[in-house]
Amino acid sequence: MPEYLAPAVYVEEVSFRAKSIEGVGTSVAGIVGPTRFGPVRGKPEVVTSFAEFTRIYGDVQNLSFGGSGVLNHTAMAAKAFFDGGGKQLFVARATNYSQPTDGFAAVADGSNNVTFSSRFPGAMGDFTLEVEWRDSENLLQSTVTSAPAEGEVVFLEATGLPEDAVASGLSSAHFPLDIRGLVQRNGDHYQIVDDLCVLDPDNGATIAAADLESGGNHLVVANMVVDGDTTITYTRVVAKRPTSGPLEDGTSAVLTFSEETDLSDFYTGNHWGTLTTLRGTLNAAGTIFTVDGSGLNTGVAAAIDLQLSALAAAPDSVRAMMVQRTFDLSVRNGGANGPVIYSYGNISSTPDGDNSLASVMAADPQKSYDKLTSPVQCALAASITGEDVMTALFEMFDAGAMNPAPGSVEGPRYLITLSGGGDGNTPAAVHYGGVIDEVNGSTGFSALEDIEDIAIVLAPAAAADSTNHQAVVAEMQKHCRKMKYRVGIVDSREAMSLSDIREFRSNFDDSRLALYYPWVVAADPRGINPTVNLPPAGFIAGVYANTDVTRGVHKPPANETVIGALRFAQDINRFQQELLNPNGINCLRSFPGRGHRVWGGRTLSSDPEWKYLNVRRYFLYLERSIDKSTQWVIFEPNGEQLWDNVRITVEDFLYNEWVNGRLLGSAKSAYFVRCDRSTMTQNDLDNGRLVCEVGVAALKPAEFVIFRIGQKTADS
Predict the structure, then answer these.
(1) Pairing of the two strands 456-458 and 487-491
(2) In the predicted model, is pLDDT for residue 31 greater than 80?
């Protein structure tokens, strides 16, 4: 109690009203089953649309269990749920792998310097990665100069050179002389670089650069003058500084020609032929391009140093130089031409830094959302260089896509394909039930125990497995009873006869389960077949969620349209339903002019008190709402004042339910709340128990509508 120690005015906040009870949500669903991708352990993730489902748990394409393709019923049920009006769906993936490391797709270079692997197991993890280089500008810069700088290598094109311009003992008959080649300014002469020149004498004789004066091979600067009979052009070609940053020795680059070009007279090394694409590295000065000899270039068995000034021998319009060190990476699903499902941007070939492969595609991303949606991770070996990274990438690139055939309209594509992903074996009941693992993460229905909001659970994929179906439903039943406030939607198996479905129903007696029959025929979301037969659970969960939001949980989820249904796999007539309905088997029926509807709203309970699904779900709603909103009562002084507060709190909540038309009768007859000495003994009080009794008159559905019509006389 407050203390009053000094004379003053004390203002204190008190409450003169009872606590309020807020109704809980009943439309949140939880689904357990195999998917193409996504986490297999830990707290299930909520998805609020089918697009979000596919980002985390993969698409609707078939699963492959033991080499056999099966329909992806979990993904198709999720789609049906959202199409039918569902808003929130928690997903727990069920898998059956022999080892925890099974099912992951991966690819690595021969030295394991770079390893890409799928973040989650699954055959969908056989992604195709496409590298798109960011540095797309042409770096080649060609200028004509009249006076090359000291030590600079340029391309010389001269015609009509006089004899005194060449420091050699060549016969005078060879002059005037034409020359094309690489030269370097060394003081008072131009040294021919590595004999890389072509000499055309006036007399038409064949002359090699080696025929020039021994040890000289040079031209006299002072006598290299332009007159009426002589033309001289010096061309400088360098790679300019890219916008992404300065060049460094070993910067990966690609040299491309728009048509076949032969520069074999102006470089030293193996002849690469007339290729249109050459891969290699640039030096920091941007003057020398080293053609890779490790196998990236067909026919090049050893590295070749190419002075970029030699490119002056090729027309400007046919050459381009681009560096390859920063790139975007797209993840394609279903092959090289499949849709892009994820993109990573601004990745550097540098092995360290914030935008390295290991950082952008981290094995353990900092953001929780990235842990769910980032489909691929990358690991780099220790102590490798950027050149090692580029070498590893080029080793993994698809050679055919990287080197399109001459004349192809397709440009080079840099594709890396992951392989080895698998869906494992068909999950059994034990995998659906799951395990509680606080260290590694729980699985199956056990994982859903951590989510308080779930009110509906389903496992549609189990209906396609005749071996495990009944056992999976038993796991669902145990889960619903354990969690108290949940109901499970049970599917029939495909093409069950009336006797089959009645026999299957006889295995269960539980008010928290509802069985639906037959399967739904819907448009094939894969686009393979016109239609596909699906278990009804996903559609029915959507009906539950939509009815709860638009009408309320007190309204039976029946006589509602099945959104997405083209028809039902079996046509159930009235006489057949007369056999099924008394057994609690909810039929799906088609009616002329009224579409395809849910035509049943019963549970699988033999107790008449809990025969109707809406009554069962409404009571679960009331119980959970009162439970959740009266936690403040615990450890309060257990006396008359507390009892009155609890009674008034519950009465106010039930009065609001009655006003909204969810209870039967008048305000006095629709409900009662007792919390006093009549509900508690002294023994209860001594043992810390507060007992409150609540009774409500729930609305039953008008399942059988009867009009009694008889004849009457006109005067009666």
Answers:
(1) parallel
(2) yes
